[in-house]
Amino acid sequence: MAALSSIHCRSYSYSPFLFSSSSSSINGQQFQRINFSSSGISKRFLPAKLFSQSRKNSYHGVVLMQDGAVAMPVNPVENEASFKKVKDGLLSSITSAEELKETAGFDVNKDESTVIITVVGASGDLAKKKIFPALFALYYEDCLPKHFTVFGYARSKMTDAELRNMVSKTLTCRIDKRENCGEKMDQFLKRCFYDSGQYDSEENFTQLDKKLKEHEGGRLSNRLFYLSIPPNIFIDAVRCASMSASSANGWTRVIVEKPFGRDSESSAALTKALKQYLEEDQIFRIDHYLGKELVENLSVLRFSNLIFEPLWSRQYIRNVQLIFSEDFGTEGRGGYFDHYGIIRDIMQNHLLQILALFAMETPVSLDAEDIRNEKVKVLRSMRPIRLEDVVIGQYKSHIKGGITYPAYTDDKTVPKDSLTPTFAAAALFIDNARWDGVPFLMKAGKALHSKRAEIRVQFRHVPGNLYNRNFGTDLDRATNELVIRVQPDEAIYLKINNKVPGLGMRLDCSNLNLHYAARYSKEIPDAYERLLLDAIEGERRLFIRSDELDAAWSLFTPVLKELEEKKIIPEYYPYGSRGPVGAHYLAARYNVKWGDLGAEQ
Amino acid sequence: MATRLTTPCSSSSTNFSPSSSFNNEAKLFTRFISMPRKYGLSTWVSHIHSKTHARKHFLLNSSNEHPLNAFSLQDGLAGNPLAKERIEPPGKERPSIPMSEAEKEESTLSITVVGASGDLANKKIFPALFALFYEDCLPENFTVFGFARTKLTDEELRNMISKTLTCRIDKRENCDDKMDQFLKRCFYQAGQYNSEESFLELDKKLKEKEAGKLSNRLFYLSIPPNIFVDVVRCASHRASSANGWTRVIVEKPFGRDSESSGELTRCLKQYLTEDQIFRIDHYLGKELVENLSVLRFSNLVFEPLWSRNYIRNVQLIFSEDFGTEGRGGYFDNYGIIRDIMQNHLLQILALFAMETPVSLEAEDIRNEKVKVLRSMKPLKLEDVIVGQYKGHGKGGKSYPAYTDDPTVPKDSLTPTFAAAALFINNARWDGIPFLMKAGKALHVKRAEIRVQFRHVPGNLYKRNFGTDLDKATNELVLRVQPDEAIYLKINNKVPGLGMRLDRSDLNLLYRARYPKEIPDAYERLLLDAIEGERRLFIRSDELDAAWALFTPLLRELEEKKIFPELYPYGSRGPVGAHYLAAKHNVRWGDLSGEIYE
């Protein structure tokens, strides 16, 4: 099976020729590799002289260069020769000789650049469960540069050893690569340090800066801050980091997690405040759903398969469903959630982002700015959401098999009279030429019967279906459906009608499917790994730009406000159920049937 | 999993509820009776079976002009495990036909296999008949007659047949019982193929079995083409049914060019009307060929794609992994083009490329197929490659050349391989190459349809990848045999942090989804002939059009004594096929090193 190239640091286990190289690779090589690719990686990663490079070229470069670099792993000893090889590999794609020179110039600096990743809020849950493990996975896969350091920063007093101890508990190696795991872990932990301090104290950050400088040892310093802290201290931390711990000669980037405000105003205020201290391209707003494998694949499917091209419009698509469900409730940690609710927590960001990716026009290129431009256009074309197009629900307690499941309001951290929706369904419309009149249905909920996230595309009926005449059942209901299951068990399948083998003429609905676990035995990387790596590389495609965020909020803010002002009471549904029936009525109004609640599966 | 509908015949129906379905049935019944008939010989009533044999109502389907009813009626009988599992019991769609004992007793069916001692009869026809019997697809009163020149007793015939009967793997129970029951219905009559007396004798015996009931007679001509007409004459004059229908199934070859085929048709028509002639092309009975129309016409996702706008080329591939193996006598007179291309592959092409028919009825479908055939650009010699296999030693074993076959002349130029590029000059397909390839003694046994789509215009990913994404286009593959499958090759991203594209298959492997054994093509076709369903049989004008397309080319090949390109036994065929494909900017999809190889 020919793979169609362009390989990141990650993919080598698939290509035999790459595999040999990776097995012998050491950090140095890997770092070089990254460095080469970094001509595209980002302006900030590079010395100032490279800043002039156009973004377009740089992206163009990234993929291909990495390909070349990975295919021909650079051996530090024969640096010159191998670089030439890489250079040759690049010739086809790089347009200006100047660029080449710059890349070459950069090569000289390679030993001098460092990356320090500071996890602000290191003792928190997200940090422990996701960020440190993702960093370790990147390290394990040799995706981190040679000179990298991980700093934990939080208020708690801790020694480096204590941090390492804490971090080590959550590190695991990928199933398919157990060897050296312990060793690698030790090596990784040795790169982890801790500094305690207040989030709003510039002195503390100055202290951190000092420590960072020690580790950088005078080399070019690139700094990535991951803000894994509550939103109310975002700005303080950004201020302090920017004022007192910015890199002097490299780039400084800040990854921010949701929530990005709770409505248009607060989001705008947050953006404004962030921009006091940071440039737009220093801000990396993470939406970890965009880092999911199948969401990434969505664009590939659309734009590299001719067969989907004619189908991707109102002419053939009847409706699109974006479904997210969790099979657990807030479980005692509803404090944060209660302030936001499911619409802000899932719909306004994750589902809306996927919708925008799904529905956007073909971008000029795969560059971050081109893609984000198209996404903004979708968001801005959307019809304002009306209250009657939204159904909200809240789970109530339920006894099943002798076990009592709590209601949302049983959560001690939630006010007894909370009206916060834990479930919501909404019908959205995009008023543009491609999608006019096609309902985009979203559904998100906690404490439902299954855990799943998927995109369902239901196609129209076959006009003048020949088989309709002969069959009692309404074939118009058995339309084609394309399902992209993001989790669990990544899969893509297309439901088609076919004939049941046998002497009769009986139609059946089967799936043409691609089950990832069967086809790709390797573990699929966590979304955080991809996003962290992208941030390090300066790839902004999967991060949310300020104007995207504004557009997303302006879509949802009015309806959220209305829900709250009118104190709309959520429809209650039992814990572990399929959600409030209101969602069906909402779907029925637009002549849609939820695809996930059919008899199937 | 929602399913819809209609399985014909087949075993006991569990959800059957006579009382509730009665009204329905009555209605249907009336419709049948009032239906116009082509045969004028029988009453519909008499075709209908009794409810005491609820499994066999399919006989109702013997209506010729109502596949519509045939379908839905058949549904009621769907009782195979699969059906039970996957069908929602749609009470309404499961009518059965209650009727009086008297009615059911009156109709009989005799199937006479002419050439009963032959290979085809033994390997395919009798086993198919038995399978139909096993599945309760044959009417209550049926008789199988063997007719051939050899003197045999009934017992000897039964003995001979019984050796080739098998039960489906998933239906072992009662197999022996059933076999015995079946064999008891088999009889033999020896006679000359051109002797009206012999057929008169046969007629007498048939009448005995029919015992005065309404008689329907099906003759299966499993004999060499030179005696087709004699047999048809004798059968028609002496052994036609007096009060029911008489149908004749004819196997290929239907002539060897336009003239001989026209002549054959003319002769047949002296004794038979068009709708008594059932020209069988067993490829049309294959499951996935049947499915082709379902895929096309019941899935919106394929609708916009089915034209020159999206399809770059279509490939129809047939290969066998063995040669003539000592039985090349017949083959040598025809060659692979007549044996496979002009019929099987061309028929599939026509089904693939036809416009949407007005309905699924036989005449509507055949009308559309004829239109395709008549729109085809005449075949040019330079668009055809012929080959012949030569001897080959592999792994210490030596494989014979075609001309090593003792039944083949040493200097034979008969092609055992051919590839051709065909074009349909209509609005839908103008300029799209339809490539056919058929060969014997190749490296694999396979039959498939490959649809290669165009490249993605302005492919975004192309800029970033060294490889030419325009070569990695989508492809839809319908594998007819072995291992029936449908798969659609798509480009997707390899999971991982990078952006690497890969070609994967969205696939439906029949064996995995439908564990049941897929019926042999002959079963379907025999059943269709019994039921008068002509969809899968070739009409005279279709046959004419098919010959008109190939005859000039065949003549030219023979007149110019074009030498076939020799290829080793067991190889991938002559390389000329690649050059032919290249000329039309096509790559053979089956020789590309993909996983399904």
TrEMBL record, chain A:
Keywords: Carbohydrate metabolism, Glucose metabolism, NADP, Oxidoreductase. Pathway: Carbohydrate degradation; pentose phosphate pathway; D-ribulose 5-phosphate from D-glucose 6-phosphate (oxidative stage): step 1/3. Gene3D superfamilies: Dihydrodipicolinate Reductase, domain 2 (3.30.360.10), NAD(P)-binding Rossmann-like Domain (3.40.50.720). Residues 300-594 form the Glucose-6-phosphate dehydrogenase C-terminal domain. Pfam families: G6PD_C, G6PD_N. Residues 119-297 form the Glucose-6-phosphate dehydrogenase NAD-binding domain. It is an enzyme of class 1 (oxidoreductase). The keyword NADP applies. The keyword NADP applies. InterPro entries: G6P_DH, G6P_DH_AS, G6P_DH_C, G6P_DH_NAD-bd, NAD(P)-bd_dom_sf. It catalyses: D-glucose 6-phosphate + NADP(+) = 6-phospho-D-glucono-1,5-lactone + NADPH + H(+). Belongs to the glucose-6-phosphate dehydrogenase family. Catalyzes the rate-limiting step of the oxidative pentose-phosphate pathway, which represents a route for the dissimilation of carbohydrates besides glycolysis. This is Glucose-6-phosphate 1-dehydrogenase.
UniProtKB/TrEMBL annotation, chain B:
Pathway: Carbohydrate degradation; pentose phosphate pathway; D-ribulose 5-phosphate from D-glucose 6-phosphate (oxidative stage): step 1/3. Residues 113-291 form the Glucose-6-phosphate dehydrogenase NAD-binding domain. It comes from the Eukaryota. Gene3D superfamilies: Dihydrodipicolinate Reductase, domain 2, NAD(P)-binding Rossmann-like Domain. It is an enzyme of class 1 (oxidoreductase). Keywords: Carbohydrate metabolism, Glucose metabolism, NADP, Oxidoreductase. Residues 294-588 form the Glucose-6-phosphate dehydrogenase C-terminal domain. Residues 1-20, 85-104 are annotated as: Disordered. Its EC number is 1.1.1.49. It catalyses: D-glucose 6-phosphate + NADP(+) = 6-phospho-D-glucono-1,5-lactone + NADPH + H(+). InterPro entries: G6P_DH (IPR001282), G6P_DH_AS (IPR019796), G6P_DH_C (IPR022675), G6P_DH_NAD-bd (IPR022674), NAD(P)-bd_dom_sf (IPR036291). Transmembrane segments: none annotated. NCBIfam families: zwf. Catalyzes the rate-limiting step of the oxidative pentose-phosphate pathway, which represents a route for the dissimilation of carbohydrates besides glycolysis. Belongs to the glucose-6-phosphate dehydrogenase family. This is Glucose-6-phosphate 1-dehydrogenase.
